[in-house]
């Protein structure tokens, strides 16, 4: 038998002692059951990089939770932990993906729960609280006018028009920029950054976050550099435009200019580097949040194409409330309960972000006799389409069916909009504005257009497949459809534009 050098045996001994200590320690506390971890790698290799919510839902058949990631598949558990115990569940994990792809300085410090996060929250609340969004109504209505006119002129490019609408609203609110074309340079910069970020992977399911050394692989490093360049441009280019306008004294009122003035009353040249970084990140992040608006609107159109009886019923309701010479406004919302049910079902049928954004437990906790260790990553599983066992928004009859009537039949059924924006202190502060955008577009389309199936060269209707793209945001795959503006609504659009001018 050969002697083993001490330099080789010592690491092995230390690893053995560490693993033994872990087993002894965990035996004293009841951890939530979960898939058997792999030595050294834990459960990292068991989490797919695409559509991980399907795997999480399957695990619920055998396990309540998974360690070190806690997957919440029920509304009760999500509310109990992320809302009722938000004081210790409001942190964000430190993700290599965030640090490397986003290219932020001190990225984890910025998103973790603490004074800087609370400052960012105040920044957003100043613009998007329930009272402040009433001041943004004129912007929303003007963008609706542009959208409907674009559909009249080029109905075959409605996908682009919806993208321009989503980008146009947020660009006007955040930077004071008037966007009238999808080819606007600022829109293209933001779209490229959002697309690359979405394609980079789903938070809490990216292998590099579990094995940080993978970031040094050439392929991953090149991808990170590409996304970093795009995101930096999205944050910096429009910010510098507003800054230059502030210096020259000619600037449109917007979120960025207000924050600059608040942080530095003496002038923008006196802004600290931390102030500038905070403003850039807060304002730039709003683009990622409101890009989900486009996802919901695309899903709405897909659902109307696949379920013409739903569209016809919503339009019949609309015709009974809205006169032929006008378009719907926010005051009409309570009078359109079926449309409200349709929008709820759209948000449930295809949740824009199926796993939400991950939380991080800030201290040890006990839930249902299970010990949850400090540092555990916690995600809410909203959606699953591959198994019968429901996730949070599949806890209803026939969850795979698109059926808005379920909300009229059961008034107590969970409204998806109560959960898809998050829980507790991490709930999206822009949710009220985003909800109003979706409602106004959906109502305007139902009122003024005919949405249906496209036809092939032989005149036969094409039934699209309900297929969705994997990624952080679950966009519908491209699908054919027909949309036509109702000629009898031309005077209504003209009256709308006249009212906006006055």
UniProtKB/TrEMBL annotation:
Coiled coil: none annotated. CDD domains: CYP64-like (cd11065). PROSITE patterns: CYTOCHROME_P450. Heme binds at residue 428. Keywords: Heme, Iron, Metal-binding, Monooxygenase, Oxidoreductase. Gene3D superfamilies: Cytochrome P450. InterPro entries: Cyt_P450, Cyt_P450_CS, Cyt_P450_E_grp-I, Cyt_P450_sf, Cytochrome_P450_fung. Its cofactor is heme. One of its GO terms (molecular function) is heme binding. Belongs to the cytochrome P450 family. This is Cytochrome P450. The lineage of its organism: Eukaryota, Fungi, Dikarya, Basidiomycota, Agaricomycotina.
């Amino acid at each position: 038998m050969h002697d083993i050098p001490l330099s080789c045996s010592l690491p092995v001994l230390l690893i053995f002692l560490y693993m033994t200590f872990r087993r002894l320690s965990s035996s004293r506390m009841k951890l939530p059951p979960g898939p058997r971890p792999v030595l050294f790698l834990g459960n990292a290799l068991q989490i797919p990089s695409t559509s991980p919510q399907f795997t999480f839902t399957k695990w619920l058949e055998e396990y309540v939770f998974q360690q070190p990631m806690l997957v919440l598949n029920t509304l009760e558990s999500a509310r109990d932990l992320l809302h009722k115990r938000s004081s210790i569940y409001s942190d964000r994990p430190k993700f290599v993906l965030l640090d490397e792809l986003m290219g932020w300085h001190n990225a984890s410090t910025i998103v973790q729960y603490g004074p800087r996060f609370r400052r960012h929250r105040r920044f957003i609340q100043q613009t998007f609280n329930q009272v402040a969004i009433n001041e943004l109504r004129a912007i929303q209505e003007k963008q609706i006018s542009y959208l409907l006119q674009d559909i009249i002129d080029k109905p075959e490019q409605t996908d682009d028009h919806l993208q321009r609408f989503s980008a146009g609203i947020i660009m006007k609110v955040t930077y004071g920029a008037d966007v009238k074309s999808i080819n606007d340079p600022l829109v293209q910069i933001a779209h490229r950054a959002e697309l690359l970020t979405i394609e980079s992977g789903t938070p809490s399911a990216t292998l590099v976050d579990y094995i940080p050394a993978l970031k040094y692989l050439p392929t991953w490093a090149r991808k990170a550099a590409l996304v970093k360049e795009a995101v930096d441009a999205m944050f910096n280019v429009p910010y510098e435009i507003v800054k230059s306008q502030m210096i020259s004294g000619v600037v449109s009122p917007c979120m960025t200019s207000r924050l600059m003035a608040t942080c530095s009353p003496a002038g923008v040249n006196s802004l600290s580097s931390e102030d500038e970084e905070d403003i850039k990140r807060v304002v730039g992040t709003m683009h990622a949040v409101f890009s989900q608006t486009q996802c919901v609107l695309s899903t709405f159109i897909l659902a109307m194409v696949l379920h013409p009886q739903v569209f016809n019923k919503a339009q019949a309701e609309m015709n009974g409330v809205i006169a032929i010479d006008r378009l719907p406004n926010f005051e009409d919302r309570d009078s359109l309960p079926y449309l409200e049910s349709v929008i709820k079902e759209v948000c449930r049928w295809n949740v824009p972000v199926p796993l939400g954004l991950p939380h991080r437990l800030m201290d040890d906790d006990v839930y249902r006799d299970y010990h949850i260790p400090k540092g555990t990553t916690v995600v809410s599983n909203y959606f699953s389409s591959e198994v019968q066992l429901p996730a949070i928004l599949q806890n209803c009859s026939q969850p795979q069916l698109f059926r808005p009537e379920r909300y009229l039949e059961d008034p107590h059924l969970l409204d998806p909009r109560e959960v898809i924006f998050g829980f507790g202190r991490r709930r999206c502060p822009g949710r009220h504005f985003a909800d109003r955008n979706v409602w106004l577009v959906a109502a305007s389309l139902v009122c003024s257009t005919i949405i249906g199936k496209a036809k092939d060269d032989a005149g036969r209707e094409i039934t699209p497949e309900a297929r969705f793209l994997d990624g952080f945001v679950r966009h519908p795959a491209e699908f054919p459809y027909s949309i036509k503006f109702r000629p009898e609504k031309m005077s209504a659009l003209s009256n709308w534009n006249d009212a906006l001018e006055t």
